[in-house]
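Tutorial sheet, problem 5. The two components below are modelled jointly, 574 residues in total.
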Amino acid sequence: MKKVEAIIKPFKLDEVKAGLNAIGIMGMTVTEVKGFGRQKGHVEVYRGTEYEVNFLPKIKIEVVVPDSIIDKVVSTIIEKARTGNIGDGKIFISSLEDVIRIRTLEKGETAI
Amino acid sequence: MKRLIIIVSILISLFISGFVFAEVSMQENPPTPPKAKQGIPAQPVPNPEVAAAASEALKIDTGDTAWMIVATAFVMLMTLPGLALFYGGLAKRKDSLNTMAMSFVTYCVVSFLWVLYGFTFAFGTDIGGIIGSAEKLFLSGVGPNSINDLAKTIPEYVYVVYQLTFAAITVALASGAYIERMKFSAWVLFSILWMTFVYVPVAHWVWGGGFLAKLGALDFAGGTVVHVNAGIAALVGALVLGKRHEAALKPSNLTLVVTGASLLWFGWFGFNAGSAVAANGLAGAAFINTNTAAALAAISWMFTEWMHTKKPTVLGLASGAVAGLVAITPAAGFVNIKGAMIIGILAGIIPYFAVASIKPKLGYDDSLDAFGIHGVGGTLGAILTGIFADPSVNELGKGLLYGNPGQLITQIIAVGVTALYSGVVTFIIFMLLKTFVGLRVEAEHEISGLDESQHGEKAYGF
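Model answer (structure tokens):
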């Protein structure tokens, strides 16, 4: 099993979610996060004075998937979240040891 | 400290030059009867019955009374919730409640002290042009049938509360410069001391028949008494307090700021149109001037900002409207609509640069620009009143454009005297507070936020 964490632009969330649903991913965890990378920050102006805002709002999507479909999941996220501009985000993929569904105590891929 | 000395010396030189001008203008103009009082209905009374009654004795007019009760409630709305929302929304997320609490507690403190002794020292019988007499301590002698000489057609009770709401907002305005670092206890004491030793005497000088009234200074609804007064207190207090650890404007909630600014605008109709102390044509003039100036100031601030920083901000619209309201305050019942337009347009430009350019250069930390908007806007309005006062709107005011250049000088004197007095006494009050209770919260508490350290609460529970 793999855990995919994708940091994307907030306005791309709906498209990415629909894309993942379409390939059979029925669950995900979404968090509003802040951070910066190459995009650095942006500038806000209050009463004529500019303030640099270093942390930009982003959306983090976490999905856990069987190894078999990981490539499809990643390519779907890339396709849907990509604008070609700086700040499109990143995808982190890691191996996952186990998953347990609390209600039924199922384990492994059946618990996803 | 160095900057403070510079500012104080500027104020002193203003004061001295004021007296030089005063002598000159007194030689030029024969003494004029007091003009600056609120509540002198300038319009001829059309109803002969009312006119006859007025010449016999002071008589309560039900129309005037109804309007003044409503106007008083309007002005109360400016402090709570208007100013509390405006300032509270501009404060950082962790200091938002404390900022609102400052306005709230001040309204309560002043409400109490005003009926105790504030009213009588400000509006009691004049003693030497300096202060009112103590005859109405605890409002003694004021009853349902009593009428004040300064408000001849309404019950004195209503006039007491009307003036109370002015005193409260003036003190609360200064808090905008002190937020995000001042101890709440020091603020409560400041409210008491500043109302007593600054607001009360200055209100007496200009409105209660004191020496500035006798000099002929025009201040329809409080350009000097309220805005210059509070603005200078804001500046001096900000200098004594020193900079915040994070001296940045990070509004916690701009929607509250818009709500607060709009409520201020609404309440200002009571502030300015109510200052006619009658339901008459002069109130109508003040009403339309107030709205026009506020709208134009919001537009001109927006365009100034658009050109200067490339974005027309919502905070800019709200700030511009407030600056326009401040600037039209002394002029509302004296200028015609053209004068109101020019005052409005300038109020969107000059305070903008005071806030966006001059403040960063001088480096004082006036958190929410109480000086930049109220001090600068109030001074601008008071001076422009001396230029645009049109005797066909109000026979008590004749400005430079209508052949009375002396009025402009009188206005400058009134601003200078108010600024100097407010500056010096505010400084003394701050020094006393610094010695006896301390002014600032601990650095740790400032960083974690005053909501939690001062009140044990949070503005936003999510």
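Marking note: Chain B touches chain A through 18 residues (CB under 8 Å). Full credit if you identified this.
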